[in-house]
Every structure is written in C-alpha cells, then in structure tokens.
Amino acid sequence: MGKRPAFEASTHSAHSGRDTKRPKVDNSYERNPPHASGTGEEVTTARDLQNALFFDQSAQGDFRSGLNLFKRFLDSILYSTEELHLPRKRAILREYLDTQKGRGGDAKDGLFLQNLTQGWDHAVETNFNAIISQVTAVLALLLKVFASHGEFLAYGTLLAKTLLQPSVARRFVRSTSAAPKEENVIAPALRLLTELTKFNNGAHARAVYAKRDFTLDPKILGRNINLGREQSAADHVKKPSIRTTAIRYLLTHLRYQDERAKSDILSNTNVVRAIFDHIRTDPPFLIYEILDVFKNHVFQDKTIARHTKSRILNGKALSRIASLYSYEVEQGSLSETQKAPDQLAHDFLRLVCTDPAYGVMLPTQGFYPSTPDDVEGEQDDAPVYGHDLGLESADSYAKIGKVRNIILSEFVQGQRPYANILHQELVVDIFRACPELVADYFVKRRDFSYDPKLTSTWIGYSAFLYRTIQLPVPEHFGAKKHYREHPPPVPVLMDSILPQPLNQQVLSKCLNHNSELIQLFAIRVLIVALQKLHNVIQELNKASVTGSSKHWAQAAKRLVSEVSRRCPSIRTVFLSLKRPGLKGMKRESITRLLRLYYEVTPQVALQERFDVSLPLCNALVEAEKPSTSPEDKVFRVMELEHWMQMARLSPAMRWWQKQKSLEYSPFVTLLRLLVTSKEDELYGGIKSLLSDILRDQEMLQTKTSPDALDALIASLGSTSGSTTPSTEVLEFLDDCCSRFTKVPMKYFDDVDVMRARAAHSATEVGPFSTLLMTLVEQWPFKGGETATSNLADCLAQWLSRLMYLLKLIGEDEAMLGHVRDALVELANPAYKGVLQDAFLWKMGKERAKEALKLATGADFSGSERSSKSPVPPEEPEQNKKTRPAIDLEEPPVEDEKHTGLTRWRKKELGEAIDDGDVGELILCLCSDHAEIRIQAINNIRQLAAAIQSTGRNEPSKREAPEGHLCHGINFELQQLYLLLGELLESVDPTGAEAFPYVGGALAARCAGIVADPTLPLFSTVNRFLTTSPVWDVNSLLRFFWHRIVASQPDDESTYHEEVNWYLDYLMDGLRTRADMELFRRSNIFEQLLSHYTSRSCAASAKDKVVRLLLRATHVGGSTTLITRCGLITWIQMMVGGNDARQRALKILASRVYETCDQNKVAAWSSGTIEEIVASLIKGQG
C-alpha cells in the first residue's frame, strides 16, 4: 500500500473532502468551500453554465458552486415540474454541450466536457474528495438526462467515449477503492459506472467491461458489495448504501453484457456469493432486483454454460436465500402489486433447485442410486455391480444408497417443512424433481419422532409426509427411454411409499388415538401410501412384462411384503371402524382404506379371514335408508362400493346366504337396490359386481348383448303400477338362486335332459340361462295346481316378462319354448294364459322392452311381432381385431449368462432365498451345458456348507447331540439344508446328465416354501422331504397331484391357492421332451382334463390348464394329447358346452393338430380328427 498523501495526513485537511450537505464537525473546516449562492440564482443562457463550470485551480470554491448550480439545473430538466420551461432548458443545455466538444466538432482530437475532466483530474491528484464526489455525481446525473431524452443521445456517446479513455477511466479506481468511510466518494462513482453501462440500452457495456481493470476490479467490487449498513427500507430509498449501489452496478452488467462477459463475471464466485451472503439485510426492492436479474439474465440464459451456473449457488448461498422465508417486511415498504421477499425467494428456489439446466441440480436417475460411472448424459445402462440393488435389505441402504445431488441433500436437511408451508412446498418440489432424495432425507432425519401428539409441529409434519407420499412415480423409475434390466432398490421404493418415520407401531398408535384429527391424518396417509404402492406395483409388473429379468417380479413381491410389515394390521383398522358415532367422511375413509388393503395387499387382508358379509349387509341397509342431506347419501353409496369391492375380493363372501339384518341375500339385495335406484350414476359399480358373481356361477348367460342380467334387471324394474319389485318375486328369485348355487350340477343335467328331449345337439343350442331350470323346478310350489298361496299372479306376470325379454335379447328360442311349456304344464289354470302368451308382444310388455332399451342402448325395433328371436349382435370388426392375442406359451430359453451361479453369494442367505437366487442356482442343474451343471453342483455344496456353518458359533448349538443331523445349523434353515442334501443325492454327481426340469423346478419352488412356515404348502413339502433321502423323478408329479389336488385339503380356504401353485409348478417344469415323457408316464394330462370339468376347478385354474396344454405342443406332446388323452374330442365337448374359453380352446385344437404326427393321427382316428378340427376352426372364424 502506498503512503498516505500529505493532504490526507494533515490534521486540518482530514475533513476537507466533505460535501456541502454534510454537517460541520468540531475542529474541522472545509478547504475552498463553495461560495454561497442565492436560492434564486438560475441558468438563463449557456454562457452562465460556461462561467460556472470553468475550472481554475485558484478558484476551486467557485468551481464547486458551479457544480452545485449545474446539478440543480440538471435536476430541473430530469425531474421537471414546469413543462413550459423544459424546452428552453434543454436548448440551453444543448448549446452549452456544443461548446464543450473537442476541436473539430468531435471527441477524436480532445475530451468532451474538458472543464469537468480537468477538475476531476486535479481533485484526484490533490486528494480533494469533495470535488471528486461532486464531479462524478454530476456526470452520473448528466448521463441520466442524456438517456431520458433522445435528442441528447449523441452527446451521451461523446461523454461515454471520454470517460472510457484510459486517462479518465483510471480515475474510477481511485473513487471506488476509497476508504470504506468515504461513502460520498464511492457511491457517486458507482452510480456513474452504472449509468455509463446501461446508457442507450447497454451500447457501451462491452467497452466498460473492456476497461474492467479500472471499472470492474473483482476485489474492489467484492469489498464494496460487503459495505452494507443497517437502515430502514425508507432510508435505503433516500440514501442507498454502498452495498446497494455496488450490487446495482453488478446487476447492470449482468443485464447488458453478452454471454462471454457474463460468464467471466460469474466466474468470480467471491463477488457473486457476496451478494447472497447478506441478502437478508437488503431492502425488499433490492432483493427483487437481485433475484429477478439472476433468474432472467443468468439462470434462464441458455447461452451461459451449465458449469458456469453451477458455481454460483452452493449450499451456503441456497441457505442464505432460504433465510428470506423469515424476512420481516416493514409496514408500508411494499406496494400492493409487489411480492414479499419470502415469496420471491420461494419462486426463485423452486426454479433453480428443480431443473438440471440451472446448475444446482444434477441430472437425476429417479429411484436408482448414484454409481461411480454416472455421467450427465444417458444413464440407461446400469453397471454390473448394481444389478442387485433392487433386492438389498432396508438396513443396508444407508451404506450403498449414495445420492448425486449432495448440495440439495444438505440443503433440504436444513429446511423446516413441518413449520413453514413455503419450506414444505420447496422440499416437496425438490423431491419431485429428484426422487432419489426422498429416501436419503428420511434416512438422515431419524431424529424426528412421529409419535402422535396433537401439536402444530406434528400436524405440519403429517401434512409434509402426506404430500411426499403423493408424489408421482417417475416414468421408467427414472431411466431415460426404457426400463432398465433390473429394478430400483426396494428400500428406495419403500421410503417413497412409507417413509422411515411411519412404521407399524406409530401408525397403530395414531389409529387408536383419542383425537379424531390424529386418526384422520393417519388414515389419509395410509390411503395415499397404498394408492402409491398400487401404482409402483403396476410399473413393476409392466417392466416385468417388457423385460426378461425375474427381478422385477421379485421386487414387486418384496415391496408388498415390506409395506405390509410397516402398515398396521387390518384388524386394527377394523377396530377403528367400530368406534361409536363414526359417520360421514371419516367412516368412508376407513372403508376406503380397508378396500385398499384387499386390493393392494391381499395376503395381509385375507390372513384375518374377516367375514365381509355382515358389514356389506349393514352398508346395504344404510344405503336404502332415506338421507337427510345429499352429502350423507354420497358417502353411504361410496362406502357401499368399497364393501362391494372387498366382497368381490374376499373368497369367504357368502353372496347367497340371507343375513338376519337383511330381507334377502346380499346378491338379491344389491339387485333390488340397482332396480329401485333413481340415481344410476351413484350405483354404477353394482352391475359390474353382479356380472362378475354370475360369471363365476354360470347362472345366467353372458354371450348376448344385452345379456341375461340386463333382461333380469329390466323384468324386475317394469312391474306394473309399482316402482319397486314385488316382495314375492324377490323372495322367489332369492330362493331359486340359493338352490342353484348349492347343487348347480343338477340343473346343468336338467338342461342336458331338456336338450335331449328336443333332439338338439350341444352345438345346435344357442345361448341359454341355466337359472331357468331352477325357476321351472320351484314354480309348482308357488303357482302350481297344489299351491296354497294366491299370490302367484305377480310371479306369473314376472316370469312372462322375463321369458319375453330373454327371447328378445337372443337366447335360444327353442329352449325357451320348452321352458315355457314346462311352466304352463305345471301352472295353476289361472296362470296358464299369462305364461302361454309369454313370447307375444302384447300383455303390457312395452314398459319392460323400453326399460331394457334405455338401460343397454339396444335397438329392438321390428322384433316385437317376430316369431323368431333376433340374431344376436355380432362383435364389431374393430373389437375383434383389438382382442388380446392368445399366448402360445413357448418354453423359456435358458439364460446364457447363468447369473444364478454367483448371485446368491452377494447377499445374506435369507435374502437370497426370498429373492429367488437360490432357486435360480438350482435350475442351473437342468442346463444343457455340462460345465454349468458341474458348477451348479459345486455351488450347491458350498451353499449347504454355508448353511451348516450359520449356527456353529451360537451357544445354544454347542450342546446339541453329536449325531444330530442338523448339528450347528440355524433352525430356520434346517429344512433348506435337508432339501439341498436330497437334491444332491438325486442328481448325477458328475454332471454328465441334465436333471429334468420336473425335479429342478420343484426344488427351486420348494426352497422358498421351506424358509417360511406360514405358507400353506409348508407341511406338504416337509412331508415330501421326510419321505425319502433320494427323489424319484418319475413319481414327483403323481405325489403332489394326490397330496394337493386329489386329496381333502387341510384348510379349505387355501385349496385353490395350493392348486394354482401346483399348476404353476407344472408349467415351470414342462420345458423339454424329457419332461414331456415324465408327464406322459404320470398320466397328468388325463387327470387335468378331468379336473377341468369338475365344479371344484376355479376359473384361474382352467386358464392355467389351457396354457399348460399349449406348452405341451412345443415339447413334442401333441400326438400324445390326441391319441392318449382324446384332447380334440374333449375340446369339441367343451366348445359345445359353451365353455367361457372357447377362443383359447379352438386355438389349442388348431395348434395341437398342426404340431402332431398327422399321418399317425389320421390312421388312429380314420380321418375324423381332421374334420373335427376343421369344424372348430371354421367356428372360430
């Protein structure tokens, strides 16, 4: 630092640089003070300005007085209150400026306004701060006048060129670097530079930047930006601080410079960050200018590189901006249209923190964690060591779950989303843009307890959790274009659905709390969590279909299991529903939650074996009661829909059993509610539920459009003189439906008998509703000759309408005629006429026809007097084309990577079992390659050794008997150890022969069962393992057939689940011709065809049998299926019996015949098989 000049060191001259406006201090005096001038002194000619602004070193006081006079003159032009004198003043100024040009009329040969520049030079040389301050202030004001009046733009250009000449520009350094206490010197210079930079829309901004050594020194500017002072917003307007003036100068450059200059300026992070370090102390107008310029001219400027933007805002700067959320605005400092600083900061942070283009946020991968190979471009290919990230335990997430957006991760940790609504919106927006931060946030914020307390903090945190869970699932889970090969980590998905604070204990406490508000918060959180789980499972299933990896399905299963552990038990939710006085929205919310349990986590809901019949009946009773308000009616209907959906999903639902609280069975009660309701839009879900129930029972046909259910509803709703169906009709229908469901085979046989009497074959009979046979059987007890009741008239009328409508929709007229004749034959003479004319259009059936037409949109014009039934409407061509294609079930191809050989080593044993890695290892025994089989045998032996060593160090194992088989083995893994031992004894130890998939698939599936004693098949598999130490592959299929399908189940509620497991095992085990040979020896296909036709075979099991038969055609089983099992004739019989899978069966027939030995089949059948297949294919077309 240079020595201080003598002038500054002088005691008498220490204060000589002060402006005339500043008060005089004791023991100080002004050097060459301005001469007093009267207030009435005015500028009347240009000569007055020339005389006043003439610089003479010996008359510096006069020069200062002239500067004051010139300043007042410029103020009168810039802020004129007298418009009449303004043209004259501008003319005087123009005349004066013309006299101040350099030689030759321009500034090429000299300086513009030489008197002012000479005075400025002399003041700098003599350290005369007062003149320096006055000259720079007058020049800044003069430039402002030039900018506001277009006629002076040329003069402004001359002045700008003069100021930017090196001899003048270097004077800026002297002013801007003055001592911090000399504000009167620094501020005018900064104002002059600001006006110079923005003059004429930044025409000289580049030239100013070119002289940046004098005009934009980073150290000087950074120091000035930090020179702030505490003062009110009003004082900031009257006399801005050095910080305010310096920031405005910097912002001017950011407005008018090009991208290169701005990038260079922004690279000086000390200057830029100095703006944000003290932004909380700035006035509202300056905060607005700062954030507006950085938003519009920096972050949204696409020409500035992203890496330049990324250096502007670090975690500290973001925190400083976020501190504006608690900014206290002085009263009257904001206009009505001006935003408060907290809202300005909120909008700014939401912009820069949620888009990678602005530099703060790094490109995100959604739910996938960060890896060392990540780049900011395409990230669709996960590294090899990341393949198992979708299946690790929740505890290990903290070790491997690294995030890329470290700045945002630290920033959101410092926010208080539970206490400030703007904080909450910001954090949620950041979570939406960076899903990876959700799990990271809650893993690090374990200090907050969610134990229910009715405080503002707890309520705010609940709202924050609710909004976080509500966030949508990223497309492809964050991958760029398509799903990756493996799913995201389950813990990351888990924390996005139910964050860490939400566990079973806490949520159960909330549901059992005395406060209704806490209960409602917990219910809402659980509802949105299960809805999000449903969306995630849909995405996982979609990815599983499009990809070949099994990890997607495993991740979905694991995720449901993890969520089930964190959710309260369904019993807790049921108990909260039983609280007294529960009505309206809260009751509907609880039933909605129960419905989601059944839909999303059925294994949890069905464990309780809760009978849905009673609450459904209660909901039906409530729905039929008159309501006091429309809202109550809507809530009742919504609650009824929830119970109906639960009943549809509950296997224990008794649809046909009459409850004490209901007049009819639940099915007929729903039917009555649908018929009598005047608000069809409220009960839209009832009809689809009734259709599903009837489809399972095969009570009413569904082949026509409208179908038999539509006809039944129309017949009940068209009773003459009444808006509700007759009680006798409903009781009769209820009784008939109940009888049908108890012994359905009897009525199917009755249909066959009636068809035989009419001499019709199965293929000649059209659509027909089997329930009619029950009506025929029960009709004599109500309207027969021996009937004692005289109330059968309404029954006869209803039967007549029903028969008419069934004929109208296209049911087989011949069969309907036989039904009518049977009813007439058994009827009392009083009702024979009504029934005899059932098919005639008279008898007041117009209302029934119109009701059916209104409900279904069908057109029956011209068919009233027809003697034949109208042709059922054919399916439109576009619908035929959009029907899903039947999968021909080709066997899966062997994975050439054989990742199952090593993946089990990367995880804990329990985790490897749950994820199916042990099963994949076992399937390697069935590989076509001998070296793979040998490796599989060695790996299984190592796995068995690892299991054996799991409990050797446990004290409880040391005293075990020496000869015990499972000495030193963890009890939970004993059965798996036994399974692996028997498997090794059953395979070829040399690996020379492949193990059949019939055995490999069984071992792979049993590995997951023996590890979980709660599974239904646990006891069956353990009986099998204790039967023999070596497996006889030839008897495996028969053993499990007799144990699962052909035997009385231990638990009737799990029978269909066990059968489905067995059929899935058959599907997985049939992959090669060797497997097909084992199937043939075991006579499995004959038994499956027999089981298909039994009443105990569920619809899902029938679908799987058809799929298995299609699989057999790929492994050389077609000829065996035709000649040994009679498959073609069996298909003909099923199609003739109107089986619901006719299209799949016809494709199966075509596929079997195409792949069989046709010569052998033709010789065996004398050519009849070819004719049958041709007729089936023709029927398909």
TrEMBL record:
Domain spans labelled URB1 N-terminal: 114-461
One of the GO BP terms on file: maturation of LSU-rRNA from tricistronic rRNA transcript (SSU-rRNA, 5.8S rRNA, LSU-rRNA)
One Pfam short name: NopRA1
Top-level taxon in the UniProt lineage: Eukaryota
Region of interest called Disordered, as start-end residue ranges on this chain: 1-43, 856-902
GO cellular component: nucleolus
Bias (Basic and acidic residues): 16-33, 877-886
URB1 C-terminal domain mapped to chain residues: 919-1130
The URB1 central HEAT repeat domain, residue ranges: 650-826
Xref: InterPro entries: ARM-type_fold (IPR016024), HEAT_URB1 (IPR059018), URB1 (IPR039844), URB1_C (IPR032436), URB1_N (IPR021714)
PANTHER family listed in its UniProt record: NUCLEOLAR PRE-RIBOSOMAL-ASSOCIATED PROTEIN 1 (PTHR13500:SF0), NUCLEOLAR PRERIBOSOMAL-ASSOCIATED PROTEIN 1 (PTHR13500)
Name recorded for this polypeptide: Ribosome biogenesis protein Urb1
